[in-house]
Amino acid sequence: MKNQFKSLSIIAAAVFTLSSCAKVDSSENVDPITNQDRWITVAGALMSTAPGDGNGGTMVYSVSKEDARNPNVSINVYDKGFPVKSTRTARLQSSEDGNTLFNIAYSGDNGGEFARYKVNGAGSFTQQDVTVNISQYATTTPRWSKLYDGDKSGVALNVTGIAANNATDKTKSFQYYRGVATVLSLDLQNVLINSYKQYQIPLATAEELNGHCIFRLDAPVLNKAQNKLILGTWMRKYNPATGLTESTFDRLGSKSVIVDYPSLENPKVITSTVGFGDNSGYRSPNAFVATDGNIYQATQRDSKGSHILRITQNNEYDNSYVFSLDAALGVKGVYIDCWKYAGNGIAYALYTHDGTTQGYIARLDLNAKTATKIDITYDADLNFGQYQGVLVSGDEVFVAVTPVGKDGNIYIFNKKTGTVTKGATLVNKAGNHYIGIF
Q1: In a 10 Å sphere around its CB, with 0-12 CB exposed, 13-18 middle and 19+ buried, how is residue 14 labelled?
Q2: Mean pLDDT computed over 409-421
Q3: What distance in Å separates the CA atoms of residue 425 and residue 400, rounded to the nearest whole number?
Q4: What is the pTM of this model?
Q5: Is the pLDDT score of 4 beyond 90?
Q6: Which interval of the chain is the signal sequence (predicted)?
Q7: Superfamily for the 39-437 domain
Q8: Residue of 259, 244, 127 whose CA lies nearest to 182
């Protein structure tokens, strides 16, 4: 593969005037812009073949923060919004000030194409004349996330070609199943590929002999020192005798991969003895650097219900930190679909649990290790499974809440006081649902 990447020209974008701007430590994973005059962009996913599948494409629409708060304002992203490039659900991120939308198209002819859009308000989004396609390195279906480094960088990830070491030569003794991991760094401002690395990532010998392997990498986060990337994993287990995947198995402790940054070299696996699920998230960031400098990471498909895990500034799991969402919420089988760190130890989680198929929202206190379900209007058709973006701006946390095929609202939570405000109405269509605010 080529190691030289040609920079693409950039069209300068007009900057939306900020009336006031307050920054926090950039090493803390909260949105630092606290001005009142930013765009609020909502995203909606279109149905493809089944209600709620979200595979028919993505629409976006932007309003002022004042309008987002106003319950008398109606937002119809499907009739008045802008279609973002993506055959299936777009993987969206936004700049800290809300003036730019970043997207990597997922699947299809343009899968893997990175693009930037200037947010103009309402359904007006101008695609800047700069693109780069990463599909030859990370396939047409990469996972990616913007790092908290002042909108400078993003990281795309993929694992391909999982196979046994003796797949083509059965005279060899079986040792492992492994795929080839790609870790790719994007320059979001100059729109070019900074660098990429590809390698196999081994587990412990005994784990590999039992058929365990890393199936997916996602949800990258930069540590406080900004010299290590922590990558979330989704694990898989094969039957070494048959080569078939096993749908039920004794899960290993939750694992993350640590690589040097910005070189992307020296992958190292770390393991939690607190969580027993994956920590790659699904469509949204899943790990954040908190005010205390530690990284907090959620688990999914955890045999003991979702946990919030802590990774110290030494880049190791802190197994003395035990935060079970089952215990905190008083239910069983909690599954975190999406969550967001809001600052000062407070976070908000979108989740479901055993005995129900609908989604709920909880306010988390990472320091006290408590969680409280928020009292909003819930519906049996509310599903956060594909949710992507929770916006934190100042003390306010914005979440789009729409049951599949039904109208809903933007909800605004005050991270300091815990108060809840029902904002603008989100107009829906049959089979569709809103999947984020950016």
Answers
A1: exposed
A2: 97
A3: 9
A4: 0.92
A5: no
A6: 1-22
A7: YVTN repeat-like/Quinoprotein amine dehydrogenase (2.130.10.10)
A8: 259
